[in-house]
Amino acid sequence: MVTRRNFLKTATMASAGLALGDFSLNAASYKNIVGANGKVNLACVGIGFRGAEIIKEFNKTGLANVVALCDIDLGAKHTQEIMAMFPKAKLFKDFRQMFDKAGNEFEAVCAGIPDFAHFPVAIHAIREGKHIYVEKPMCRTFLEGELMIKAAKDNPKIVTQMGNQGHSEANYFQFKAWKDAGIIKDVTSVTAFMNQARRWHNWDSRIYKYPTPDQMPDGIDWDTWNMAVQYHEYSDRYHRGNWRCWYDLGMGALGDWGAHLIDTVHQFLELGLPYEITPVWLKEHNDYFYPMSTTLKFRFAARGKMPALDIDWYDGLDNIPPLPEGFGNFGGEADIPTVAGEKYKSSNRNPGKVIYSKELTFQGESHGAPLHIIPAAKAKEMESKLPEVPQSPSNHYANFLLSCLGKEKTRSPFEVAGPLSQVFCLGVMAQRLNIKLEFDTVKKQITNSPFANAMLAGAPPRSGWEHYYNV
């Protein structure tokens, strides 16, 4: 495994060998075949937990034929439900075999798998000419984001979508309408916060080594689970969602929730990449898993007539940010969107965000819930000036499938979701290294730390997985 002690050596090799350019894919095998009855033939990688929820949502649209299922643990209880729902679907443990043996039977792929696994599955799909839906965050390293963005641009017939479902909910259409009408303008700062418990909050931050291996359950293809990252021996501390806790494998609270909180701010205010990322506070920082609490400051330069903007990120149970006068509840739960079949419930509107402009302050929540002007008196004053907000023509899953059928365009394609995910990658690097990062947004290089700059590429891929980085 790669630890902080030896990372600089390996990451420097990666940075030299995996330059950010000259990446192209051969999509000669691209097929725009509509499945039976006007549906999209869909292959699903990851069929338990979040992957299962995604598959159910695709199935509800009535636009998908699920023809192949892939999971490294087909014998586990948490994968049995989806297998029973689609008894005719072909089963695989290794996504590469799924493409080899059933690739001519599907046009699109959905991936509800760990953060570190998104890149190879997405790249493989694009190379095979398949449309690809991948959960957020899109990538785990800055380089992976760069390559995925370029792959999508080089293959415009292939439909891509990142699973930040709010991009098909109320706030997406509201934010655009309010910005076009001049309601949202001159934004100078955003506070985004997620102060609910995380899996690692009861772990010992005095950690000095990776977990002692556990007995591996029967039937798991653990080698494939590791994908392109350096091999980690099996541990319950990695499996079944625990991967999100580790720098090597997941993106922590920022990568998990940032895409649901700052996505519309990032897209419609054209933020791009930050020029500075500062770890303001990291509680119980260590080299292995995420801090108990984190405050990060992202600084974005002025864009045309739009002023410079800062985003302050807060996570941790004891790290609730200062909130403005008038911050509170609006409309009960009726405006909270449905996520994976259930109403998403917040506690005191947390997770949430506050958007500060020169004239107005906006309160928002997660997963596409609409913004509210605060305080209430100001909202009342602005009521007659607010434009009509169009309804979403499709939810996020239907949007992807309709785009595969040529009837819509995805709202969170890799070209949009990639830079947002790269913001999270830079934030995670600041967390891991516990240093301020100065970033050249044109050259896409960190200028104040060779160590951090090498880290943009991440550690070299595991033997046998280098070709996915095909530079």
Summarize the structure.
The protein is 30% helix and 18% strand. The chain has 471 residues and is α/β, with parallel strands linked by helices. Strand 2, helix 3 and strand 3 form a beta-alpha-beta unit.
The overall average pLDDT, rounded, is: 91
Number of strands: 17
Q: Tell me the helix content.
A: 25-40%
Sequence of strands across the biggest β-sheet = 15-14-13-7-10-9-8-16-17
* Strand-residue proportion: 15-25%
Q: Supply Rg.
A: 22 Å
Shape: globular
How many helices? The count is 14
Largest sheet at a glance? 9 strands, mixed
Query: Which class of secondary structure composition applies to the elements?
Result: alpha/beta
Low-confidence stretches: 1-5, 12-34, 332-344
Distance between the termini: 24 Å
Give an account of the 3D structure.
30% of the residues lie in helices and 18% in strands. α5 packs parallel to α6 (142-154), α6 (142-154) runs antiparallel to α13 (414-433) and α9 (252-261) packs antiparallel against α13 (414-433). A nine-stranded mixed sheet has the order 15-14-13-7-10-9-8-16-17. It has a six-stranded parallel sheet with strand order 3-2-1-4-5-6, sandwiched between helices. It contains 14 helices and 17 strands. The longest helix has 20 residues, at 414-433. The chain is α/β, with parallel strands linked by helices.
